[in-house]
Amino acid sequence: MEKKNIRNLTKQEIEFEITKLGLPKFKAQQIFLWLWQANVSHFDEMKNISKAHQILLSEHFEILNTTVSIEQKSTDGTIKVGFKTYDGHTIEGVIIPSEDRITACISSQVGCSLSCTFCATGFLKRERNLFAFEIYDQVYLLNKIALHQFGVRLTNIVYMGMGEPLLNYDEVLKSIYMLNDVENGMGLGAKRITVSTSGITRNILKLANEKIKINLALSLHAPNNEKRTQVMDINKSNPIEDLLEALKTFYSKTRNKITYEYILLKGFNDSVEDAKELASLCQDFPVYVNIIEYNPVEGTPYHRTPKEARDLFLHTLRSHKVESKVRKSRGKDIDAACGQLANKVFGNQ
Ligand code: SAH
Ligand code: SF4
Predict the structure, then answer these.
(1) CATH number at residue 166
(2) pTM to 2 decimals?
């Protein structure tokens, strides 16, 4: 008999399954807490479940977990973590401590099906979507590391690791609800959770209508369709004007300011003209522009914009009343950019 993965079941589904096996219904709540709040990997760790029931459960279900396989600490405090999935893939997460917060960056897929030309993950094949429990596990394990290293819990979560979260919509949403769940999950506030997307219009609209109101970041990276399509193929089917419409709806439903991420690529998208054009995309709803320093990726033709041009770009945006700041690249000595760890340390698995 094939065992069911119990971590893919809701509490109601566990209730249904265990009553079929003769366990009392209320045990589902206890099992659920062992699975999510204690993150156990064996039924014999469930102390308030009788030995006989532990054995019965283990005959019908399996508990799949994600484990930490490598931890690298940068001189700037950033910690990059490689995880092994239950089926042997490598994914990655990063802990980024700053003055007022500790942010965890997590992955949503093994690899990515999109091939943005500047991104290391784009070179990896998309192997599969991650399950909600695997996304949750990354946060759980990173939180443990943060507690151990800094003595404090994670404060913020960003879906900015490997993969396109809005192309794994259902599992990403499930993971968000579990992370947010105070009673059974980690109790992380919705306002502290950000999903970053390359721009999947239909799913931005779907997200706008969810009960939970999280933050959204759009990886824009170019100020017009012509340039954006050159670096992000997904722009062909999701052009900027459609994205802006969807973001406008997202803002009207959530009242959460939208973030644009904009990597400065030397000589490509970093001129004063580009900045002016970008400013014109910030007029329809409140936007915050994160200017990102490029983390060089081997095999790409791109270079980081020099400081003077970067400052002029920022100044131009601000003079057009656009809120913006430069996000310094973190963990440079450990390849903390998107997808780089999996690529370099482990090879593509
Ligand atoms: N697929 C989603 C989320 C993962 S990528 C997205 O594209 O938004 C997270 C962010 O890292 C994106 O803004 C992405 O463009 C950026 N990024 C990718 N490669 C980078 C690099 N080499 N240097 C700096 N940022 C990079
Ligand atoms: Fe995928 Fe995002 Fe990288 Fe593009 S930037 S290849 S969408 S992970």
Answers:
(1) 3.20.20.70
(2) 0.95
